Fold this sequence. Notes:
Layout: H1 6-28, H2 36-52, H3 58-90, H4 92-99, H5 110-146, H6 157-190, H7 197-216, H8 219-222, H9 228-234, H10 245-248
Amino acid sequence: MTALTLPDLVAFAWFLGAWITYSIVIERSAKGRTSLNALMNGYRDEWMVQLLARDMRMVDAQVTAALQNGTAFFASTSLIAIGGALTLLHSSEEIISVMSLLPFGATPSRGLWDLKIFGLIVIFVYAFFKFAWSYRLFNYFAIMVGAAPLPAEKSTPTARAFAHRAARLCADAGRHFNRGQRAFFFALGYLGWFLGPVPFALSTAGILVVMWQRQFASAARKAFETDLDNTKASAPKRRSLKLSPSKRR
Length: 249
């Protein structure tokens, strides 16, 4: 019978609470509107406005294809991860016997081990659905890019409405992609549970710190705070090489 100890329950509650709280802060709070993900949504809108003024839109098509390919890669990776987790579930006895020889932690029971593997499978299934839906939304977005109004119509209300609608669709695809990638990150933290409740809690905290730092304190996030005018003013001037008449020859 599966026996979840109190430390296991506390660590698992901390894991779920960290995931849910982080998601709410990133997507629904005022603090989240200053995150790197939220700042990129403004550039999606700007991208669609600029697209309306371009006669040749091959670059836009290439960027759209890159977004689709990246999402398809993660969706395929999710399926591979699900298959790997199912393999672990099928080989529980062999893995438990190997873990009993390791010098850390207690050997888990078969029921507890299967429960942990099942939780890992649920995380990867959730990630797959998010990546698959994101890929589908990027397909819709690619169709909208192909149906964009002509440059002569860029200033019309219909064209402006089209640009904002396409940008919202692209942002929604990006939001689901971020949720799937978030599941991957927390899956790494979940792996700590196989070593015990304390490593589980610590690995969850570590993943949370890394994700928070990337959204609010990374070099990429700080790039949006740089004053470009001051950067240009402080940049060293290039020295102009003046050659003498003899050297010019």
